[in-house]
Specification:
Elements lengths: L6 E7 L2 E7 L9 H17 L2 E6 L10 H4 L4 H19 L5 E5 L2 E3 L1 H8 L2 E5 L3 E3 L2 H4 L7 H9 L1 H10 L3 E2 H6 L5 E3 L4 H13 L3 H15 L3 H16 L2 H11 L12
Parallel strand pairs: 2-3, 3-4, 4-6, 5-7, 6-9
Antiparallel strand pairs: 1-2, 7-8
This protein binds 3-methylmercaptopropionate-CoA (MMPA-CoA).
3-methylmercaptopropionate-CoA (MMPA-CoA) binds next to helix 2, helix 3, strand 5 and helix 5.
Keywords: Lyase
Pfam families: ECH_1
Family: Belongs to the enoyl-CoA hydratase/isomerase family.
Length: 261
């Protein structure tokens, strides 16, 4: 591989960090060096932005694991590689700021796994989703068996992996794999608009949404309800809550927009 490749672009637009997967000649396939570049960009975004967007340069979001690099790996290196993806993607899913994945073209294998680590997925009409691990003789290793299975359900994920079923954007939306489908070319703009909106939320509430919701989903109802009360009580103690509640009561804050008005 050409080690002078940039791999990831980073740009800040106000409170939003834009992280661009930048290896279009290889359809943004993720090598070891690439996963570290994603990690660095995500960490930087967490320190200086309030929300992030992850998108792919070129027509495809991401073709997954770099199969050329992977085919040469001894077993234990593959184990460590998968665990590193887990750590890096966990930093997206349960970090300090929310991320939106803007998906065009292929979100395949590890590309779908990366998108699944974001809190929100926006796909344009060119997007397609596949899990071809069965054909490659490998398995998901970037957290897909947990995150994708939770998004679309293990039976549907098993269908995709066993039969090679490829989902278009609208099918992925119907299955819960993406939250928004937009016309061709509009994914990045929509993702940035959503990130800008999220960036206006109270920081602690965003942190609680990111970190508490997936944990509570893993708990019993009883534990979940107790944890919810603790998180809600903590949120109420923040200066943000005091300021924002007062602003609402003094009619200085925007109301919820009634879509039927
Ligand atoms: C790659 C990769 C890759 C493309 N690793 N080099 N992922 C896959 O099984 C998907 C494999 N890729 C594809 O099916 C297609 O490339 C796409 C549908 C994504 C795009 O097709 P297309 O026609 O636009 O591009 P292309 O001509 O197939 O690929 C362009 C170049 O990118 C070509 O290299 P070149 O040197 O011949 O120009 C491809 O070899 C290269 N390329 N995808 C390496 N993935 C943590 S576990 C996760 C497990 C997985 O991710 S499994 C799924 C792997």
């Amino acid at each position: 591989m050409d080690t002078t490749e940039t791999l990831v672009t980073y740009e800040r637009r106000g409170d939003v960090a834009l992280i661009g997967l930048d290896r279009p000649a290889k359809r943004n396939a993720i090598s070891d060096r690439f996963v570290e570049a994603i990690h660095d960009a995500v960490q930087r975004a967490q320190t200086e932005a309030r929300a992030g967007v992850i998108f792919g340069h070129g027509p495809h979001f991401c073709a997954g694991l770099d199969l050329a690099e992977h085919s040469e790996k001894p077993l234990f290196d593959a184990v460590k590689g998968s665990r590193r993806w887990h750590a890096v993607f966990d930093g997206i899913e349960r970090g300090t700021i929310p991320f939106v994945a803007a998906i065009t073209g292929a979100a395949v294998g590890g590309g779908f796994e990366l998108a699944a680590a974001a809190q929100i997925r926006v796909a344009d009409e060119t997007a397609f989703f596949a899990l071809p691990e069965g054909q490659r003789g490998i398995f998901v290793g970037g957290g897909g068996s947990v995150r994708i299975a939770r998004l679309i359900g293990p039976a549907r994920m098993g269908d995709m992996m066993l039969t090679g079923r490829v989902l278009k954007a609208a099918e992925a939306e119907a299955w819960g794999g993406v939250s928004y489908v937009v016309p061709e070319g509009a994914a990045l703009e929509k993702a940035v608009a959503l990130a800008e909106q999220m960036a206006t939320n109270a920081e602690f509430t965003n942190y609680a949404i990111i970190n508490a919701l997936p944990r509570i989903a893993d708990m019993s109802s009883e534990d979940g309800l107790f944890t919810e009360t603790m998180v809600a009580s903590l949120a109420t103690m923040t200066g943000d809550a005091k300021d924002r509640l007062r602003a609402f009561l003094e009619k200085r804050a925007a109301k919820v927009a009634n879509p039927n008005a």
